[in-house]
């Protein structure tokens, strides 16, 4: 992973989201915020793991600096993806932010039990959604110090 306090190269962000509207709003947030980081999008849990493990179509995928993970995904849900990430020595240091529409207490508890770095409920209002994404990006990629690949 990259140390954003010392490197000026764009961060690699993996968005795992099956809702095209939320994908579009996230892309808009990056564009409106003039966020120079690279956003990669996959639409289900199986694709997310293929991207992370660089399998199949994702053989040349970069290692993400941050994962934005929806919980309600086709083929493999977000909890299963998060659990696999946290159980893998090569992937477990990647910050994973659960970004979901669920406000269920059990989902929040489960995500933190699986060591999510944060749990955010997607705002319904598009402007609030965009603002949330921009705030998340600034915090995780500008304020927080992430371990480098060597650490």
From TrEMBL:
Keywords linked to the UniProt accession: Phosphoprotein
SUPFAM superfamilies: CheY-like (SSF52172)
Boundaries of every Response regulatory domain copy: 12-137
Modified residues (4-aspartylphosphate): 70
GO BP term, example: phosphorelay signal transduction system
Source taxon at top rank: Archaea
InterPro entries in alphabetical order: CheY-like_superfamily, Sig_transdc_resp-reg_receiver, TCS_response_regulator
Official protein name in the record: Response regulator
Taxonomic placement: Archaea, Methanobacteriati, Methanobacteriota, Stenosarchaea group, Halobacteria
């Amino acid at each position: 992973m990259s140390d954003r306090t010392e490197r000026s190269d764009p961060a690699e962000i993996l968005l795992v989201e099956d809702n095209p509207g939320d994908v579009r709003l996230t892309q808009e947030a990056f564009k409106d915020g003039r966020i120079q980081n690279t956003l990669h999008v996959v639409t289900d849990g199986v694709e997310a793991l293929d991207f992370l493990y660089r399998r199949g179509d994702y053989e040349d995928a970069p290692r993400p600096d941050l994962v934005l993970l929806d919980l309600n995904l086709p083929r493999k849900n977000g909890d299963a993806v998060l659990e696999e990430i946290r159980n893998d020595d090569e992937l477990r240091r990647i910050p994973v932010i659960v970004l979901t529409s669920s406000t269920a207490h059990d989902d929040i508890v489960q995500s933190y039990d699986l060591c999510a770095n944060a749990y955010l409920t997607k705002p319904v209002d598009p402007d609030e959604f965009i603002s949330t994404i921009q705030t998340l990006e600034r915090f995780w990629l500008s304020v927080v110090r992430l371990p480098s690949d060597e650490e």
